[in-house]
Specification:
Layout (H helix, E strand, L loop, with lengths): L13 H6 L7 E5 H6 L1 H10 L4 E5 L2 E5 L2 H4 L8 H16 L14
Antiparallel strand pairs: 1-3, 2-3
Helix pairs in contact: 3-5
């Protein structure tokens, strides 16, 4: 069994994503719930992962930029940049979700 991890690091929490200083991998699942909050998210991630793949599942979409998961011969270019852009897109979406803030206010 092959397990890929980032040693001593975990995925950023929604609050960390909202702060804008996070990065994600090029493999991610985005739930229908998040897609409903931000109608442009599906389009933006689809464009970002155009060289990879996106697969619609019953509860959301799985995006992949790595050839092993995408079924393509090559990986997406600039995976670090893609991971940073994914974090920015999710920041935009999550900042519209007031329950993530203690005071109930959305981001600016």
């Amino acid at each position: 069994m092959l397990v890929l991890t980032r040693e001593n690091q975990s995925l950023p929490t929604p609050q960390q994503l909202i702060k804008g200083n996070s990065r994600l991998s090029t493999e991610l699942f985005v739930s229908n719930r998040l897609l409903a909050i931000d109608p442009g998210l599906k389009r933006d991630l689809g464009t970002l992962f155009a060289a990879g793949s996106s697969k619609k599942w019953a509860t959301g979409i799985f995006f992949s930029g790595w050839a092993v998961f995408s079924g393509r011969v090559h990986c997406i270019n600039s995976p670090l940049g893609v991971g940073e852009q994914v974090a920015r897109y999710l920041d935009r979406t999550l900042s519209r979700y007031p329950e993530l803030y203690r005071d109930g206010k959305t981001k600016g």
